[in-house]
Amino acid sequence: MTYDRLVCANCAAPVSEGRCPVCRANRERLQQVNFFTGLNPTALIALLVVLVAAVVLLAHQTV
């Protein structure tokens, strides 16, 4: 979720404006980059396909 549509419960202003300390803290928290949040859905599907293929290959080798 992006912070541009969130409304602060403390000051009732958009969080993206950062009017109060609560807004600024939440804006900073939401701007922190996480590895999985930066991936688009196509990249996540590709990662899932690679993981499933690896599991299938490992299962096939142990049989």
Structural description of this entry:
- By secondary structure, this protein is mostly helical.
- It folds into two domains: 1-32, no CATH class; 35-63.
- The chain is built from two helices and no strands.
- It has helices at residues 21-31, 41-62.
- The protein is rod-shaped and about 60 Å long.
List the defining traits of the structure above:
single chain, 63 residues, mainly alpha
Report the C-alpha radius of gyration, rounded.
20 Å
- Count of discrete structural domains: 2
Q: Which class of secondary structure composition applies to the elements?
A: mainly alpha
Approximate shape: rod-shaped
Strand element count: 0
Averaging pLDDT over every residue, what do you get? 83
Largest sheet: none
Question: What order do the helices and strands follow?
Answer: HH
Count of alpha/pi helices: 2
